[in-house]
Amino acid sequence: METRFDLMSNEIGAKLAKRFANFAAVLHTSALPQSTQELVSLRASQINGCAPCVDMHTKEAAAAGESAVRLNLVAVWREATVFTEAERAGLALAEEGTRLADAHQGVSDETWAQVRKHYDDDQIAALVTLVAMINAANRMNVIVRNQGGSYQPGMFAAAAN
């Protein structure tokens, strides 16, 4: 499979990518734990079949010290013992917020209650925005068939400047 279109070589695409990088920079400085951000981004990307985002968030998480065991178990987090209750709430929100077409009610009241239990308002704002933004990034990458495998940790950090 070949990439259909290089968004980064297009003037509009490059401007939009910079805005995405700016969102990511704000999220990175939020009170939402970085490990939770990477796990949530990884899970949504797995669901959406976004190879470049799975590549990026796996490598970023590993570079930040995330264990291989936890990264390998993200796809089956409900059956794994290595995630905190707060992380489970974030992963559930990521799944339900990603699978909107599959779950006609969207995010369940139970999941929302768990999110409220474990995160403050600033962290919730970051978490909700993160789920929305990773889904948008996944869709752009999948539409143009961007490939995974070449990402290096920190590669996009300079794009926000």
UniProtKB/TrEMBL annotation:
Pfam families from the entry?
Answer: CMD
Q: Which parts of the chain span the membrane according to its record?
A: none
Its domain of life? Bacteria
Keywords, A to Z, come to:
Oxidoreductase, Peroxidase
**InterPro entries named among the record's database cross-references:** AhpD-like, AhpD_core, CMD-like
NCBIfam families, A to Z: ahpD_dom (TIGR00778)
Q: What is the recorded name of this protein?
A: AhpD family alkylhydroperoxidase
From what organism does this protein derive? Amycolatopsis methanolica 239
